[in-house]
Amino acid sequence: MKMPNHAIIKEVGPRDGLQNEASILATEHKVEWINHLSETGLSYIEISSFVHPKWIPQLADALEVARNIQRHSQVTYAALVPNKIGLKRALEANLDEISVFMSASETHNKKNINKTIAETLPVLESIVREAKQHGLSVRGYLSTVFGCPYEGEVAIDQVITLSQSLFNMGIDELSLGDTIGVANPKQVANILIRLREAFPHKNIALHFHDTRGTALANCLTALQLGFNTFDSSLGGLGGCPYAKGASGNLATDDLLYMLEGMGIATGINRKKLLQAAQYIQGVLPQPLPSHHMQIFAKGGNPL
Fold first, then answer.
1. Exposed (0-12), middle (13-18) or buried (19+): which is 16, by Cβ within 10 Å?
2. Residue 302 domain-assigned?
3. Where's the Pyruvate carboxyltransferase domain (predicted)?
4. Cβ partners under 8 Å of residue 22, min gap 6
5. 140, 124 in Cβ contact below 8 A?
């Protein structure tokens, strides 16, 4: 099966990675890490979240981080926005893009947003409308697409219905989340084939977690179906704080290694990316879980 000759990697570590850390990283370390990431050739970095600090204290300094990073013109700098207050702060931060988010399962949506799905949709629509009025691009995250920690399997028809609602609001891209890392290649194929019939695949990204070791296999399946945009977190940092045990984002460094070996271009300099990984490893209290960084931790050469 023919696969794309290039792929887009969207780095979410400074947000999705750090939000799940037990310790709070100093602002200057976050800024320095993002500056390192900006030098790697990445075209997209999700730098933080404007969720209330009560819920995600690890990212309470989002505005300060945004104001102090060194920006590159070829990089899109984005942040998660939960409501109008968060959007106001994102506008103050002069970001390029904001992301809105919701879950495909009712219970997880209530745990994560404290609203039903029906209550969430008009809130997101209002945020998207205002963000567009200010010239921002908007991304939509749909969590628990491949399984919910409370409800189990999520119906594909529910995923398609909510995806349509988000696109109708005017989002530019939809990121489909395997929030608890339960997806397998057959399931991914079944869902993506249905979604490809309903929406342009170029407007869909995949956000896999590697909780059960299937993230790269799922990426391969997506590539074989023509999807080429993936969220990942350098070193495998992160997870969902509202889904117990959902640690381990797909690692950017491991994904890049696979794509390069397959001859799929990304525009990312692997040596500089691993230098950025080594920087953040140096300020974290525990080892990064990615395969590449495990090689580094054991004294090997991950290059």
1. buried
2. no
3. 7-274
4. none
5. yes
Task: With respect to residue 227, please indicate whether it lies within any of the assigned structural domains.
Answer: yes
Is residue 303 a part of any domain in this protein?
Answer: no
100, burial (CB in 10 Å: exposed 0-12, middle 13-18, buried 19+): buried
pLDDT in tens, 107-139: 999 998 999 999 999 999 999 999 999 999 999
Specify the pLDDT at position 302: 60
Average pLDDT over residues 212-219: 96
Domain that holds residue 57: 8-297
SS3 per-residue string spanning 35-102: HHHHCCCCCEEEEEECCCCCCCHHHCCHHHHHHHCCCCCCCEEEEECCCHHHHHHHHHCCCCEEEEEE
Q: For residue 185, count other CB atoms closer than 10 A to its CB.
A: 15
> Can you give the CATH number for the domain in which 54 is found?
3.20.20.70
83 by Cβ neighbours in 10 Å (0-12 / 13-18 / 19+) ranks as: middle
Catalytic residue among 176, 234, 240, 274: 240
How many folded domains does the chain comprise?
A: 1
Contact 48, 59 (CB under 8 A): yes
Place of tokens 């921002």: 136
3-state secondary structure of 146: coil
Look up 240 and say whether it is catalytic.
Answer: yes
Is residue 242 pLDDT above 50, yes or no? no
The C-alpha angle 256, 76, 109, rounded to 5 degrees, equals: 85
Task: Please check whether residue 10 is in contact with residue 205, taking contact to mean a CB–CB distance below 8 angstroms.
Answer: yes
Residue with tokens 């949709």, as numbered in its chain: 121
Taking the whole predicted model, whether its pTM rises above 0.90 is answered as: yes
d(C-alpha 250, C-alpha 232), whole Å: 5
